[in-house]
Amino acid sequence: MSHVSKIELRGFKSFGNAKVSIPLSRGLTAIVGPNGSGKSNVVDALCFVLGGMSAKLMRAERFSDFLFNGGNGQRPAPFAEVLLHFNNEDGALPINSTTVVISRKVDRSGKCVYRINRKRASRQEIVDMLSKTMSSPGGYNFIMQGDVDRFIKMDSFDRRVIIDDLAGVAE
Ligand code: ATP
Ligand code: MG
């Protein structure tokens, strides 16, 4: 199974203008910190680079809200970019390289550019490639803050919809 070995962010939400690199080892990684320190912003960054289409699900009104808005003596970012490094030594992703880097960049106008190993790509190419690893922001492999509460409070009909969806029989 391919795994994400590194997340790089530049100008994304609270992460400022300098490049921030988050290394991830295999297995469980926990990110801890005080309230408001940017833990959920890391998950938003993952959903963003994986092709998330709803700004609201990534806790923003519009895509331009992903750009670092300045403060602490720093200027607002001209763009926000997230890069995801996949370790592909086992060839799980259909690309002939041991590391696959997918990225998404958004500018102030909200225009997005996706890349696979630095080459321009469409969102669909990325979504298709990653569907093999079951990584999608709409998939239940992301449990967002508040989701567990939502699942517990759901009625049995709504919970059934999720189970059907996961089992692939919703249609
Ligand atoms: P909690 O423990 O409460 O869940 P958290 O660590 O998950 O907190 P986040 O929700 O990831 O925190 O981060 C919220 C912070 O991100 C807020 O301080 C907010 O001001 C900041 N933030 C959000 N968008 C931007 C932006 N565009 N530019 C700068 N800062 C931003
Ligand atoms: Mg949070």
Describe the structure.
- The protein is α+β, with helices and mostly antiparallel strands and 171 residues long.
- 23% of the residues lie in helices and 22% in strands.
- It has 4 helices and 6 strands; from the N terminus they run ββαββββααα.
- The longest helix is centred in the last third of the chain and has 12 residues.
- The mean pLDDT is 92.
- The site of adenosine-5'-triphosphate has 15 residues, from helix 1.
Helical region count? 4
What structural category arises from helix and sheet content? alpha+beta
Q: What distance separates the N and C termini? A: 28 Å
Unreliable stretches (pLDDT < 50, length at least 5) are none
Strand segment count: 6
Q: Please give the radius of gyration in angstroms.
A: 17 Å
Tertiary shape: globular
Order of helices and strands: EEHEEEEHHH
Strand neighbour order, sheet with most strands: 2-1-3-4-5-6
User: What bound compounds does this protein have?
Assistant: adenosine-5'-triphosphate, magnesium ion
Helix content: 10-25%
**Tell me about the biggest sheet?**
6 strands, antiparallel
Overall average pLDDT: 92
Percent in strands: 15-25%
Please name the defining characteristics of this protein.
171 residues; alpha+beta; six-stranded antiparallel β-sheet; 23% helix; binds adenosine-5'-triphosphate; binds magnesium ion
Task: Give the topology.
Layout: E1 3-10, E2 20-23, H1 39-49, E3 79-87, E4 99-107, E5 112-116, E6 119-121, H2 123-131, H3 147-153, H4 156-167
The chain binds adenosine-5'-triphosphate and magnesium ion.
Adenosine-5'-triphosphate binds next to helix 1.
